[in-house]
Description:
329 residues; alpha/beta; seven-stranded mixed β-sheet; 9 helices; binds NADPH dihydro-nicotinamide-adenine-dinucleotide phosphate
Amino acid sequence: MVKxxxxxxxxxxxxxxxxSDFELKEVExxxxxxxxxxxxxxxxxxxxxxxxxxxxxLKEGDKMMGSQVARIVESKNPTYHIGAFxxxxxxxxxxxxxxxxxxxxxxxxxxxxxxxxxxxGTIGMPGLTAYFGLFxxxxxxxxxxxLVNSAAGAVGAVVGQLAKIGGCKVVGCAGSDKKVAYLKQIxxxxxxxxxxxxxxxxxxxxxxxxxxxxYFDNVxxxxxxxxxxxxxxxxxxxxxxxxSLYNDEELQKGPYVQVPMIYQELCMEGFIVSxxxxxxxxxxxxxxxxxxxxxxxxxxxxxxxxxxxxxxFMGMLKGDNFGKAILKx
Length: 329
Ligand code: NDP
């Protein structure tokens, strides 16, 4: 009998999550039935969506949602062999049972030089978000000027580097000088610390006096109100995330988007990466190739120890993570 440790949502978050909103439990897993596999989490992913989606889809007491790279430790399913690694949506747990339907084996061959945790980041869901958001929603062309915020994060860093591969000028911003230095190191043309610039409006104008053709928005809220007013005619905006709003208890009212959208004839579209699940393989293959060729660099922020899952999650929401936030078991 395997005992799994599981982090549960004790209380629905009110405002910014607190340590007391989580509870660690021990759960005895049943014996495997035919067709099932037992998996042990190796790396767990920490993602911003867990904040808004837990509110939407979990009840108090439920296991926290999330994905992991996990090793198959027992199998009664001929497709999955003991020792293989898979990406799964098993939630915040050390062990779990799957019937195999939600498992994705790592792209093969997986280069020995790359950490398998990249399957949760640059060569996983965040990388795919950058890939499809940029190519399908921003529809970048060589010579475009692209703006991306939360640019040193899991999605943002890939967005900027893909846009460089696509021949764009790339402007990014992030919340610390260390992150800004990293953006310059990985090829961003302009980068600034949005927390320390006196005026965001001026910083955006200085980075690109002629405005922006594309805006990949990970942040929303006030940042977007300002960025929207610096879009060029027929600009494309990919609304990927709104992390500045996820912890709000009340809906904010902002300046409204219609006037700049009309004057500049903008196209603004929200998206969820799962829209392109049928093209997952294409995206992963492209990302893996660019990483191997050194055209996309990656940075991971690894916290060790399952007991630190809530702290690592809250840290990521605050911006403590430098690169993709991962927990190593
Ligand atoms: P990151 O690795 O970028 O981590 C989150 C970052 O958000 C922090 O490091 C912090 O960076 C930044 N941040 C936190 N609060 C604020 C704030 N108030 N204003 C500005 N920045 C803030 O996370 P991901 O790359 O995984 O996700 C980025 C965005 O993409 C999120 O909004 C997420 O929800 C969204 N997303 C959307 C998907 C989709 O299918 N639409 C799929 C995956 C992600 P800093 O230090 O720079 O402030």
